Amino acid sequence: MVLTSLPLKGTKDVDLMNSITQYGRSAGAPDVAPAARELQLLRDQLMKAELTETTAEAVASELQKYNSQLEKLAARFDARGAELSISFVYRNAFRSKDKVSQSDLDWERVGVLYNAAAAHSFCGVQAHPKGGDGLKE
Predict the structure, then answer these.
(1) For 40, phi and psi rounded to 5 degrees?
(2) Which CA distances in Å does 21 have to 18, 27, 28, 36, 73?
(3) In contact, 14 and 43? CB cutoff 8 Å
(4) Distance CA 16, CA 25 (A)
């Protein structure tokens, strides 16, 4: 039996930090810059991550952490973050020339959750014993 893992979806850089900070100021919110900076750094790190035998589990865990932060952030907006005017672009994992862009945090979460699943599938393929009866015990 041949196992294959899902490929990661590619994305483009976005400026979450400035968009969140500016929106927070305009809404009269307390200083959101430190939290926005932390979220931006996490996204930047994850979008550059590569899956290897030694990094895949950590990448999957960090993607899930980022998703959780996005979920909490989206809940604070009436239009699920569309107010931030950020265009999140994700490429088709199987045809990288195809891409879709949407301007809400839920779309970013879709891409992040797909990539977390891809990282978990990579872990599964790496854990699969070579040869024999596979996962039977």
Answers:
(1) -65, -45
(2) 5, 10, 11, 7, 12
(3) yes
(4) 14
Q: What is the pTM for the complete model shown?
A: 0.88
DSSP class of 11 = B
Using CB atoms within 10 Å of the CB of residue 55, give its burial: 0 to 12 exposed, 13 to 18 middle, 19+ buried. Answer: middle
In the three-class reduction of DSSP (H, G, I as helix; E, B as strand; rest coil), residue 24 is classed as helix
Report how far apart, in Å, the C-alpha atoms of 57 and of each of 14, 98, 126 are. 25, 28, 11
Please tell me whether residue 46 adopts helix, strand or coil conformation.
helix
Reported residue count of the chain is 137
Residues 6+ apart with CB under 8 A from 12: 89
pLDDT, averaged per 10 consecutive residues of the chain (137 residues), comes to: 84 95 91 94 94 94 96 92 95 93 95 96 83 47
User: What backbone torsions phi and psi does residue 11 show, to the nearest 5 degrees?
Assistant: -145, 170
The CA–CA distances, whole Å, from 43 to 26, 27, 94, 126 equal: 24, 24, 22, 25
